[in-house]
Specification:
24 helices, DNA primase, PRIM domain, 801 residues, alpha+beta, single chain, 4-stranded antiparallel β-sheet
């Protein structure tokens, strides 16, 4: 390489900007880059240049020892011996360098060019260790002499040898004179004497060789790296005729050499291209696919690990710490990573087993895998690095659906058994079966294992439950809709009945049949966060012995028909966890007076009766365990029936249209006439609304106001305060007898309760709008007046006391 080319290469490794030499005025800084013309002027001595050896990130690829007699007071032999000692130390450390006489002709500059950037502190520490070795060499001649780091070049003191090292600290710009201008000349090593001094003499051209960071000291050794031998061993594990293996080899090489070993990227591509051309299937231009292979999941060290597994015995470009960390990251090479529709990352561990990357289960898997496969016992830092890296890789993948227990793909449905084999049941128009390669992804969440379903009779399941003949179609419709219509709108099933009717046992049977899970019969959630956790981790939401759901009425509505839930991960951060999917909900035992109209519209009440005889707990557990695989099979037969027939039923009169179509199919299968399910569903909804009306004090007040208003145009307007004061007055004089704890305590509370009563008023033909100044405008006609009168009469007769 000629000197101009060497200087161009050298400048290319530096930072921005440069300096012009102005003689006695020193150097002046300029913005911009050094051009070919400027290098020519530098080499001729017309305009010497200084280059910036620091990048804008306060890093550098250079370590420069400035051994210069700025004052011209030293014997040149002293400069030569000191230069020789440092050059000898660099040789002892096997650190490549080049040497030049300084531009003034009185000193020597020793340049080390690293293969990649290091921080200024790292470079200075490396320089100090070289000076320690140089001191050892120097003391073979002058026992009391030592090298120290100075700030102004070579001092003329007799006791110390202060050497300037560049870079000097954490800065963005370091001006160092570019070699080969004025009296500067290239030097070369002409042997090393018995004391370790290197003899520097005039040379011809600069020769730039890269140095790698290594342990200092004359005893530090690194196993030689034979790249070609490593490639030969690595490539032996791949079949060039197999397209996937051919591409995988490219991805692994790109990860190893375009990220870590930039100067060897061309070498890696050329070796891979030559190997590609040995394939019988090779076509001209195939090698261009190297440039559009996409992102790689391989760790940079995977190439070296594969090479060693295939017989390579040489060194690697990594120190022990780097090697350990990258080996841990290479554990992810064979792990499929993905993210769900809200961005949560997952890892596939074995067949059909997917777990959140941020979960404890995944950390345990990584810990055991690194120990068993790589012989590493990872500390917390290494483990967190693997998890963070996996999550970052997963964030680059396309979003895809990750299901819980129930899934749908095209016309087929799937049920995850969550057993040790992660088996999945596929359901389609032809029947159901256990499959090995479903086109859907399941996560486990709180799901417990289900036994593989068996063929069973629906009558056996119905007889096991104490549910009346007219109620069982609604229970079956809810269970089948959970599987037939996963993640979509489904009414809230409310198991109701007198004490001793077995609501808890029925709930247990239902959940064990389609979605066994942790906490299946938990009590009522105390907050929206509790409900979020239950919905996020299971295919259904269930609970037993609820006394009130007033605080979570709105979230329950959103889970039933849409809207989802969102919450922050922690109170200290701004990230949120979202869940937009809907969930089938089933609850046993709740006071019907504690929910509002929106929730009432989403409830299907299933009434249970007292059984003729009771099973003790042991009998119940034994029978359920023995029968539930057949129960599940019978339910799956109903899903098959609905896949074939539900879409043929025309019905769209409800937000739960699919549930009604499924129920109609099941009702017909049980011998009910066409339309029976839809009509009975409408009756149930009306009953729910009536129960709610009779328990709502504000609704009762409003209906009585409307009935007694006597307004000619059937129109009445009032604000929240007026309504609240009127209701208080009627209670005091005894015209309105309601529970005091159900009466709003303020005009603001009255406004909210009126809003809640609007759907019930609408059912009876009363239209409510908001007027100016936040008033409520009530409008009705003669027909509505009659309906209101009927409501008041029914309310008066609802109790004998």
């Amino acid at each position: 390489m000629d000197n101009k080319s060497a200087l161009k290469e050298l400048v290319g490794y530096g930072g921005p900007d440069y300096w012009l030499y102005r003689g006695t005025n020193g150097y002046s800084m300029r913005e911009g880059t050094i051009t070919d013309e400027m290098i020519d002027a530098h080499l001729s001595g017309d305009t010497p240049l200084g280059m910036n050896i620091a990048s804008t990130e306060r890093k550098s690829r250079f370590l420069i020892f400035d051994i210069d007699d700025h004052d011209g007071k030293l014997d040149p032999a002293i400069v030569g011996s000191r230069s020789g000692a440092i050059a000898g130390a660099l040789r002892a450390h096997k650190i490549p360098f080049f040497a030049v006489r300084s531009g003034g002709g009185r000193g020597v500059h020793l340049w080390v060019v690293f293969e990649r950037e290091f921080s200024s502190d790292q470079i200075i520490n490396s320089g100090k260790k070289v000076l320690e070795t140089a001191t050892t060499i120097l003391q073979t001649v002058w026992p009391n002499e030592a090298f120290t780091v100075g700030t102004k070049g070579l001092f003329a003191d007799n006791d110390t040898h202060q050497i300037e090292i560049f870079p000097k600290g954490q800065k963005d710009h370091y001006n160092v004179a570019l070699p080969l201008s004025r009296k500067s000349r290239a030097l070369r090593v002409d042997g090393v004497d018995e004391n370790g001094f290197a003899h520097l003499v005039d040379g011809d051209e600069l020769k730039i060789e890269f140095a790698r960071q290594q342990k200092s000291g004359p005893k530090a050794k690194e196993a030689s790296i034979d790249y070609d031998a490593a490639f030969d061993a690595f490539i032996s594990r791949y079949d060039v005729e197999t397209y996937d293996q051919w591409g995988a080899a490219a991805l692994c090489l790109i990860a190893a050499f375009e990220r870590k070993d930039g100067p060897r990227s061309d070498w890696a591509r050329e070796r891979w291209t030559a190997w590609s051309k040995t394939a019988d299937a090779y076509k001209h231009g195939d090698e261009q696919k190297w440039f559009n292979t996409g992102t790689s999941q391989f760790s940079p060290i995977t190439f070296w690990l594969y090479a060693k597994e295939s017989g390579y015995t040489g060194g690697t470009p990594y120190n022990k710490t780097e090697s350990r960390k990258l080996t841990a990251l290479s554990f992810l090479d064979d792990v499929r990573l993905l993210r769900d529709d809200v961005g949560v990352g997952y890892a596939q561990i074995g067949d059909r087993n997917f777990m959140p990357i941020r979960s404890t289960a995944f950390k345990h898997h990584v810990t055991l895998g690194l120990f068993n496969d790589k012989g590493l016992t990872p500390d917390d830092t290494t483990l967190n690095s693997v998890v963070n890296y996996a999550d970052a890789l997963a964030s680059q993948t396309d979003r895809e659906a990750v299901w819980l227990r129930f899934a749908q793909a095209g016309a087929s449905r799937y049920v995850f058994l969550a057993d040790d084999l992660c088996q999945v049941v596929e359901i389609d128009a032809a029947g159901w079966r256990v499959v090995d390669d479903p086109p859907v992804v399941f996560r486990r969440g709180d799901c417990l294992p289900m036994p593989a379903p068996q063929k069973g009779e629906l009558s056996e399941f119905c007889d096991f439950l104490n549910v009346g003949d007219d109620e069982i179609p609604f229970l079956l419709a809810w269970m089948v809709t959970a599987m037939y219509f996963p993640g979509q709108a489904c009414p809230i099933a409310l198991l109701d009945g007198p004490a001793g009717s077995g609501k808890s046992s029925a709930l247990r049977t239902i959940i064990e049949t389609i979605d066994p899970k942790v906490g299946a019969q938990a009590g009522e959630p105390k907050s929206e966060d509790d409900l979020f956790a239950a919905a996020y981790n299971a295919g259904t939401v269930s609970g037993d012995n609820f006394s009130s759901i007033a605080k979570i009425s709105d979230p329950l509505c959103r889970l039933s028909t849409g809207g989802g839930i969102r919450k922050r991960k922690l109170y200290t951060d701004f990230e949120s966890v979202s869940m937009s999917a809907k969930r089938p909900i089933i609850i046993a035992g709740i006071d019907p007076t504690f929910y509002a109209a929106d929730l009432s519209e989403r409830i299907v009440r299933i009434r249970l009766h007292r059984p003729d005889e009771y099973l003790n707990d042991m009998q119940f557990e034994s029978m359920l365990k023995e029968k539930r695989a057949r129960f599940t099979g019978a339910l799956l037969d109903l899903v098959v029936l609905c896949i074939n027939e539900a879409d043929q039923i025309e019905y769209s009169g409800s937000r739960f249209a699919t549930f009604c179509r499924v129920g109609e199919v099941i009702a017909r299968h049980l011998g009910r006439p066409d339309g029976w399910f839809v009509e009975r569903m409408a009756e149930k909804s009306a009953e729910e609304m009536a129960d709610l009306e009779h328990s709502d004090s504000v609704f009762e007040f409003l209906t009585r106001q409307i009935a007694s208003s006597g307004v000619g145009d059937r129109r009445w307007e009032a604000n929240s305060k007026q309504l609240w004061e009127s209701m208080q007055e009627q209670i005091e004089v005894g015209h309105l007898k309601v529970a005091r704890d159900d009466v709003p305590r303020s005009p603001k509370g009255m406004g909210s309760r009126v809003e809640r009563a609007i759907p019930m008023l609408k059912q009876h033909g009363v239209r409510v709008e908001r007027g100016p100044r936040r008033t409520f405008i009530f409008e009705w006609d003669d027909t509505s007046q009659a309906a209101i009168d009927a409501v008041i009469e029914m309310a008066s007769q609802k109790s004998a006391f």
